[in-house]
Specification:
The protein is of the alpha+beta class and about 140 residues long. It contains two helices and six strands; from the N terminus they run H-E-H-E-E-E-E-E. Strands 1, 2, 3, 4, 5 and 6 form a six-stranded antiparallel sheet that branches.
Amino acid sequence: MKKIYKFALFVLLVGFLYLVTMKVVMPFVLDVVNSDLFFKQTEDDPVGELHNNRTYTGLLHCENKLRADNGLGDVTRSSAAESEYKAWGLGDHTYVIKAVLDVPGPDKSLARTSVGCKIKYQGGDEADPANWSIIGVGAAVN
């Protein structure tokens, strides 16, 4: 084949590939990107320190988990105020909650204990423990 025909064939092939890419492949890719295939819709859940009804409910579920796992029926919060805990939103309805609890010791006296809990809200009724997933609970006596 002559060089001119090879060059013309090369130009036609590159032009054909460009047209196929722009008219067939790219519209398909853009349809997939614009679809809900990779979109996970969550409500605006702030990241960082926060206090709201959901974090307080998460704290109550963490306390209940601590009572159930360790047989601590008499666990009490050091203060009844809702503001006496710290909570951080990690995004995607996952929270880290820290509180100070009074836990009965072996001699029946109350020991001040710091409790940390990582918990995930899965949707539905916030009061239902089945809608929460407790990822971890830890405690340290002060």
